[in-house]
Design a protein that fits this description.
327 residues; mainly beta; 4-stranded antiparallel β-sheet; single chain; globular; 5-stranded antiparallel β-sheet
Length: 327
């Protein structure tokens, strides 16, 4: 057999193996993703550090703020155009406080069975339950000790729940000390940990550039079939700000068809970059993500919210964005 034929056979075999692995891990259809323009609503949305979002029903959403004076959540009304899927209006309805200090709250999920909210905090690496009035109930997810002892900047960031699968999911923003992958944790309705997987982020783009680069998993969204959407966010702050950018990548993973403690295969669905330069000030650090309404034509709206650091120096804005998922 000639060298060229050998290479052709090897290539064909590799294609077969890759196809088989993909088919085994992601047996269902994937999504086509359409990105829509981002919007901000300065007259109806106060400056904030919005870092997590979950639907409450009837166009209302609970949103956490990682630097609010007290622990709790904001409530927003968000209107989505039924044809285009774009956000047309976002209005702040108020903040519901628990009266305890803010826990650097990053993720929030509606627990449908009890009509309560669970909120993850990076300061204490706990996921605590709140009533819809904002008060602590005393319950929490049974977070493994190794996660609760993690450094605050490596701890619990994203949180999601879906009533169809009866599972909570959370993941550390970055790998724990001495580890090379994040831990994706699954919790049952009994609030106990029922599974762990390993998640590996893409490498950052800016290893050799002057500035500060922050990257990690900032949000999760559970789908009805048990799969998860994962938002990886890289925020590069240039030395003198001009030239800063945020790149977001949306991935699909399927932990329920992956062996526990294995590295999760992932499929890139969509990516986008926002920038800060002399002509563009649209940079947006997206940290919150949840399912919105399903449009009459069947497309699923995904809503994202950005952390503006209280509209830092009057440059950053509280951006909101929608993506459309088509089967």
């Amino acid at each position: 057999m000639t060298m060229n034929k050998r290479l052709l056979v090897i290539a064909v075999l590799l294609m077969v193996v890759i196809h088989q692995v993909t088919a085994q891990i992601l047996p269902d259809t994937t999504f086509l993703v359409e990105g829509l323009p981002q919007h901000h609503f300065p007259s109806s949305v106060p400056p904030g550090n919005y870092s997590g979002i979950t639907p409450l029903g009837n166009n209302r959403y609970a949103v956490v703020d990682d630097k609010a004076a007290t622990s709790g959540f904001h409530v927003f009304t968000m209107m989505v155009d039924s044809v285009s899927g774009e956000l047309t209006d976002v209005r702040h309805e108020g903040f519901r406080s628990s009266a305890i200090p803010n826990r650097d709250e990053e993720g929030i999920a509606l627990f449908t069975p009890d009509s309560t909210l669970f909120i993850s905090g990076e300061h204490d690496n706990e996921v605590l339950e709140y009533s819809l009035a904002g008060q602590l109930t005393g319950r929490r997810l049974d977070i493994p000790t190794v996660i609760r002892q993690a450094h605050a900047n490596q701890g619990l960031e994203a949180l999601t729940y879906h009533p169809a699968s009866h599972h909570f999911w959370t993941v550390t923003e970055a790998p724990l000390a001495g580890e090379t992958s994040q831990r994706l944790l699954q919790f049952s309705d009994s609030l106990t940990c029922s599974g762990q997987w390993r998640y590996v982020m893409d490498a950052p783009q800016t290893n050799k550039r002057r500035g500060t680069d922050v990257y990690g998993v900032s949000a999760l969204t559970a789908l009805p079939d048990g799969r998860l959407l994962v938002l990886e966010r890289e925020f590069f702050v240039a030395q003198h700000y001009i030239g800063s950018f945020v790149t977001c990548r949306l991935f699909l993973i399927d932990p329920l068809h992956t062996a526990e403690d294995a590295v999760l295969p992932k499929q890139l669905l969509y990516s986008w970059t926002t920038r800060l330069n002399l002509t563009t000030q649209h940079i947006a650090n997206y940290e919150g993500m949840c399912l919105g309404p399903r449009l009459p034509d069947g497309r699923q709206v995904l809503i994202l919210v950005a952390d503006s650091q209280n509209q830092y120096k009057g440059v950053l804005k509280d951006w909101f964005k929608t993506l459309l998922l088509s089967d």
